[in-house]
């Protein structure tokens, strides 16, 4: 269909099969065939909405096959290795906060998370806190924007068109405070109570966000996404640190 010359695949990830490709005219690209997943269903829609502003360009899509042809990031190193990672993320976030029209609402996702947390989470303190915050936050949100709900240090790559470009969106329509949750728990940027609270404080301050709501959403999503995750222990640490801070 796209008459691609395929190269080496990228290291396997949770989002899909991703391989280097070349267009017939020699342009380097990336072919991504996504695994069916609730959070990834609207990935190509988000990339179309961003139009390459801070994110990789969507060159073509085949929804029937779950396939996307994407701009290639070279050299493609992870933002997590940069000492300026938090500066970069603070600059990218407002660029991604475009119209959320047509995207799955955070309020609906939170209702699904309630069921999953009730069923799957055994840590009573984390469960009760997450459920409390969902009840408090889901129906009282501010302006809805397009949010990349998995924006962390290894979903931003060094590129040529811009110094850094966002990849692998798991888009949702929600308030801005929800957007920093994956960054606060981004343990590759430093895994300690001091590191997590620094990210929370700096991003909420620089971006004019409500710190309490951002803390609550971080607890909610971290607990919801921990079930079945490979990162249960570091995520549990982050939740504990945030709850300690809230109680202080």
What does it look like?
The protein is of the alpha+beta class and 248 residues long. It folds into 2 domains: 67 residues, Phosphorylase Kinase, domain 1 (2-Layer Sandwich), CATH 3.30.200; 169 residues, Aminoglycoside phosphotransferase (APH), C-terminal lobe (Aminoglycoside 3'-phosphotransferase, Chain: A, domain 2, Alpha-Beta Complex). It is 40% helix and 17% strand. It contains 8 helices and 9 strands. The strands form 3 sheets. A 5-stranded antiparallel β-sheet has the order 1-2-3-5-4, covered by helices on one side. A hairpin with a 6-residue loop joins strand 1 and strand 2. The longest helix has 16 residues. 42% of the residues are buried.
């Amino acid at each position: 269909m796209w008459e691609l010359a395929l190269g080496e695949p990228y290291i396997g990830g949770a989002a899909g099969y991703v391989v280097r490709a070349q267009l017939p005219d020699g342009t380097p690209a990336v072919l991504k065939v996504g695994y069916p997943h609730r959070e990834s269903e609207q990935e190509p829609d988000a990339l179309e909405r961003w139009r390459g502003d801070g994110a990789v360009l969507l060159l073509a899509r085949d929804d029937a096959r779950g396939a996307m042809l994407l701009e290639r990031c070279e050299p493609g190193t992870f933002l997590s290795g940069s000492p300026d990672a938090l500066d970069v993320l603070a600059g990218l976030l407002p660029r991604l906060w475009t119209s959320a029209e047509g995207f799955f609402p955070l309020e609906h996702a939170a209702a699904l998370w309630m069921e999953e947390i009730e069923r799957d989470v055994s840590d009573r303190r984390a469960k009760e806190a997450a459920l409390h915050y969902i009840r408090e936050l889901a129906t009282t949100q501010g302006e809805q924007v397009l949010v990349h709900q998995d924006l962390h240090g290894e979903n931003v790559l060094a590129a040529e068109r811009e110094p850094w470009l966002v990849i692998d969106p798991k888009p949702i329509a929600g308030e801005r405070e929800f957007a920093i949750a994956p960054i606060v728990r981004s343990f590759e940027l430093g895994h300690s109570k001091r590191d997590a609270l620094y990210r929370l404080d700096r991003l909420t301050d620089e971006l004019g966000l409500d710190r309490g709501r951002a803390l609550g959403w971080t607890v909610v999503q971290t607990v919801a996404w921990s079930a079945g995750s490979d990162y249960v222990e570091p995520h549990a640490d982050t939740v504990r640190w945030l709850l300690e801070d809230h109680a202080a």
